[in-house]
Design a protein that fits this description.
The protein is α+β, with helices and mostly antiparallel strands. The protein has 6 helices and 6 strands; from the N terminus they run αααααββββββα.
Length: 216
């Protein structure tokens, strides 16, 4: 227990010292453009003191900067640590510690680690190869170039390699299971139920309803 407290105190001290060290690129260099419709939210985000501890981009860091750890496990290279660049609109207009925890720790845990440390999201070209796929537009496919499949062609069982790293996909009925590397290069583990599959399709019009009413 005493060693645990000592290690925690040492880690806190290192982070405190790191927050005082200058980045190679200042964080305000990643501020919003003047014409950005969400300028106020994104500007408030980039001015947050949390960015002193968690860098916005890895290019800011020097080789021995301890903040490589925070960038790796609790940062977000793509969307910002508040999700301020998550899609067309920010994840939240509330820029605070709660939003940071919700976005980086609960919603997108270890994002940079999965995408750029063990992943290959920054590759300019991605490779996708299926060893065996069942379902979709064909009953069974063996040794197929999955990169050439149509976007709507989604087999319910698929084993293969994305960027030369393995994946397993299994999603019959409402299940949605995935383990491995995505086509985008990021590592993901997903176990959930896709309740959207339970939604009933709108009833088709009966033939009688399509018949024109004869003129009197």
């Amino acid at each position: 227990m005493r060693n645990a407290f000592r290690n925690a105190a040492l880690a806190s001290s290192l982070l405190l010292l790191a927050s005082c060290a200058a980045y190679k690129v200042p964080t305000n260099a990643y501020g919003p453009k003047p014409y950005d419709p969400y300028w106020a939210v994104r500007q408030k985000a980039i001015e947050s003191p949390i960015y002193n501890y968690v860098p916005r981009k890895r290019e800011q860091l020097k080789p021995l900067d301890v903040r490589w750890l925070t960038w790796c496990f609790v940062g977000n290279e793509d969307d910002g640590i508040f999700g301020e660049y998550a899609g067309k609109a920010p994840y939240s207009t509330n820029i605070n510690f709660g939003t940071y925890c919700s976005w980086c720790i609960l919603r997108n845990p270890t994002h940079n680690f999965d995408s750029y440390v063990i992943g290959s999201s920054d590759w300019k070209r991605h490779y996708s190869y299926s060893v065996i796929g069942v379902g979709g537009q064909k009953p069974v496919r063996v040794f197929s170039n999955a990169a050439k499949w149509p976007k709507q062609d989604e087999p319910f069982f698929d084993i293969g390699f994305n960027d030369f790293k393995p994946y397993v996909k299994f999603n019959p009925w409402i299940s949605d299971l995935f383990f491995g590397w995505r086509k985008s290069g990021s590592f993901e583990i997903k176990v959930r139920a896709d309740l959207k599959k339970l939604k009933k399709k709108p009833p088709k019009d009966t033939p009688a309803s399509n018949k024109a009413t004869p003129a009197p």
